[in-house]
Amino acid sequence: MNDATELRLGARLPPLEELKRYVLLHARAQGLTPDRCRELLARVRSAEGGGPDSWAAVWNRTADGLAGRGAHLDACRHYGLARFPYATADDAERLRAGQRCVRTFDRWRRTRRGIERLELAVGDGRFACWTAGLSASEPRPLIVVMGGIVSVKEQWAPILARADALGVALAVTELPGVGENTLPYRADSHRMIGAVLDAVADRADVRRTSAIALSFGGHLALRAALVDDRIRGVATVGAPLRHFFLDREWQRRVPATTVLTLAHLIGCEPGEVFDAVREWALSEEELRRITIPVTYAAALRDDIVPLTETGELLRDAGARRQVLLLDDEHGAPGELARVRVALLRGALGRWAWCGAPGFWPCRAERSGC
Q1: pLDDT digits (tens, 9 = 90+) for 268-282
Q2: pLDDT one-digit tens code per residue, 56-112
Q3: HSE of 19 in the Cβ direction (CA atoms, 13 Å)?
Q4: Which residues lie below 8 Å from residue 53, measured CB to CB, with a gap of 6+?
Q5: What is the largest CA-CA distance in the chain?
Q6: d(CA 334, CA 128)
Q7: How far apart are CA 366 and CA 364, in angstroms?
Q8: Record's Gene3D superfamilies (predicted)?
Q9: What is the per-residue pLDDT across 185-229, written as a single tens digit (0 to 9) for each?
Q10: pLDDT at site 104
Q11: Are 122 and 191 in contact (CB under 8 A)?
Q12: Same structural domain, 121 and 95
């Protein structure tokens, strides 16, 4: 057990100030301005509990008001942040937030054409996807979209609404243990992506599938690509690949939010997290076998996933990789527009570019520094 993790033993949730820092990325990604987010965070006095100035109560109260005025998508975004970073079984306010996040999204999507709900079972667990652009008569290439260990699928509403404009089918979902996903988070969790492809194979061209998968979602997608050749490309930002799982010195500095969230998803004590995930590291041989194009956005000031992961991707000079280096923090909150374009271009371009030698003219692009 490392020293930092030992201090966190017994904690149900990360420290309030750390939550306030990391939620800014997720709020910005969902269209909330930093000023609006800080205004709400100024009212929060505790990370947990059901008091009127607790984290979930403040966000829920605002979301309730928006839902009452019919602003269902805006309410959904606030409910999603009310449950941040996760809801334990005895946290009534965060559990209510998670349920209402799905409910308000459902009301919003019923006002849009072609956004459907898909429910799947794998083993003893179940999970759901929101889909768009599915068609049995004109099956389109598929993009599977997912976030990381704290991201619910409802946050991807904007891209779902653009499926027709992009000319693709979309399936957005969430990692095991996140949101509605009741699958256990473990080494073979990547099987869930294959289950999604199987489920929509009659309404999408799943032989041409790309994944936009962020952070730990990127790790899951790359693992899936190793065993499923229908996945033709992966675009990710800040995905742990190898060093995050193996570097004990780095692990001593990983924020409590990440450690406690992983402990919650895996079902272990915080001090056991890095032993539990050690075998999840992609081996050098597995990294060599990832021959599909990979777009990877890396933040130079990332305090969760080490920058050395990009070196693993670039080790093979012949591999089709595009690495975007950004002078930012984990998830690149200051460069969201640029990252979104890079990831979308990476995913959309796979089918035309696959097998085109020399496509990657610049193996690493450095930005803002």
Answers
A1: 999 999 999 999 999
A2: 999 999 999 999 999 999 999 999 999 999 999 999 999 999 999 999 999 999 999
A3: 25
A4: 43, 44, 45, 46
A5: 59
A6: 30
A7: 6
A8: alpha/beta hydrolase
A9: 999 999 999 999 999 999 999 999 999 999 999 999 999 999 999
A10: 98
A11: yes
A12: no
Sign of dihedral through CA atoms 225, 216, 24, 65?
Answer: positive
Pairing assessment for the beta strands 231-237 and 125-132 based on DSSP bridges: unpaired
29 has pLDDT over 90: no
Query: Which residues touch 111 (CB under 8 Å, ≥6 apart)?
Result: none
SS (H, E, C) the chain: CCHHHHHHCCCCCCCHHHHHHHHHHHHHHCCCCHHHHHHHHCCCCECCCCCCCEHHHHHHHHHHHHHHCCCHHHHHHHHHHHCCCCCCCCCHHHHHHHHHHHHHHHHHHCCCCCCEEEEEEECCEEEEEEEECCCCCCCEEEEEEECCCCCCHHHHHHHHCCHHHHCCEEEEECCCCCCCCCCCCCCCCCHHHHHHHHHCCCCEEEEEEEEEECCHHHHHHHHHHHHCCCEEEEEEECCCCCHHHHCHHHHCCCCHHHHHHHHHHHCCCHHHHHHHHHHHCCCHHHHHHCCCCEEEEEECCCCCCCCHHHHHHHCCCCCCEEEEEECCCCCCHHHHHHHHHHHHHHHHCHHHHCCCCCCCCCCEEEECC
Judge if 300 and 184 occupy the same domain: yes
pLDDT in tens, 227-248: 999 999 999 999 999 999 999 9
Question: Do 259 and 300 have their domain in common?
Answer: yes
Residue located via tokens 């019919």: 70
Q: How many CB atoms lie within 10 A of CB 201?
A: 14
244/248 Cα distance (integer angstroms): 8
Question: How many domains does the structure of the chain reveal?
Answer: 2
pLDDT beyond 80 at 286: yes
Same domain, 335 and 203: yes
From 194, 214, 218, select the one nearest 206 (Cα to Cα): 194
Question: Of 54, 81, 111, which residue constitutes the final position of a domain?
Answer: 111
Structural tokens at position 342: 């890079």
Query: In which domain, by residue range, is 37 found?
Result: 15-111
In a domain? residue 242: yes
Beta strand 140-146 with 204-213 is parallel
